[in-house]
């Protein structure tokens, strides 16, 4: 029996039968073939930052951390192949040394690159997609033990599925990323009223490279955060001076270090529905949950994409995330706000708390059936489909 495994927040705990740390692709193939022959479930896991039960299994939990942490620049400009288990923070430093950078990053950098892309991790900025949109190629071991290359040149029709796959198409061993030359950003933080923030939100989103805001229910105020290249800051800012200012390489200025642990529910809302949805969320929290909510609500934007299981598929998106300290109850609070998110055609973040099953998810993802057909083709024996994932992906 393996040891107990816990996710980052501590809200997900289970004990797999085996905890495996393969050192190369041949090791991964052997694990998949053994699982298939013994009808054992197998789940790949990155850094464990997600709080949804995507990796929970009583079978074999396969850590990507032991795979080679290679970062290899390719001959084609701005492409690099990286090991699946490389943490984003480590990846940022390695790319920086090679003169490259990711176009955008999320709010934290502890995830593995494979885990972050497989769950739709995103940053903010209406011109930028989630991290999966930066994937130009995937190499994985399918449920039959086959090594499959997917890129613009090999099996290109599979790339919209493989970029964000929840780990159910295979165990990813390497990813090829489309990158930018290194760049520096200036981060500025302001405190403001919720009224001013909402009144100027469209301008702030349009004029800043990256912009998001936290709303604090206890005080009904906001913290606005912007990131821009030097000399490109817009004129629209709160009246006060920024609380903090920081300038540096993008991979060091975009993510934030998090000491306190929390659980989170986040839904991607069509941008045109954001104001109505946020207004209802705000009133519901103030009326019902203000006394018990110790954390904040985070609002970000994301560009539309063509990735089949991306929450941003086919539409410009604004995301609303409700956070709660991991030492406090969140179930009633999250269930209440989730009901509002669903009224506005919201799609849940795959790596965060939500209650949806395949029946509800099929109705909000236009390419749902195509993804399921590919999943069955690459994993005919459902080696990667645990009971949790069956509820999430298998309708009926």
UniProtKB/TrEMBL annotation:
Residues 12-182 form the FAD-binding PCMH-type domain. Gene3D superfamilies: 3.30.465.10, 3.30.70.2520, Uridine Diphospho-n-acetylenolpyruvylglucosamine Reductase, domain 2, Vanillyl-alcohol Oxidase, Chain A, domain 4. Residues 228-252 are annotated as: Disordered. InterPro entries: ALO_C (IPR007173), FAD-bd_PCMH (IPR016166), FAD-bd_PCMH-like_sf (IPR036318), FAD-bd_PCMH_sub1 (IPR016167), FAD-bd_PCMH_sub2 (IPR016169), FAD_lactone_oxidase-like (IPR010031), Oxid_FAD_bind_N (IPR006094), Vanillyl_alc_oxidase_C-sub2 (IPR016171). Keywords: Oxidoreductase. It comes from the Bacteria. SUPFAM superfamilies: FAD-binding/transporter-associated domain-like. This is Oxidoreductase. It comes from Plantactinospora mayteni.
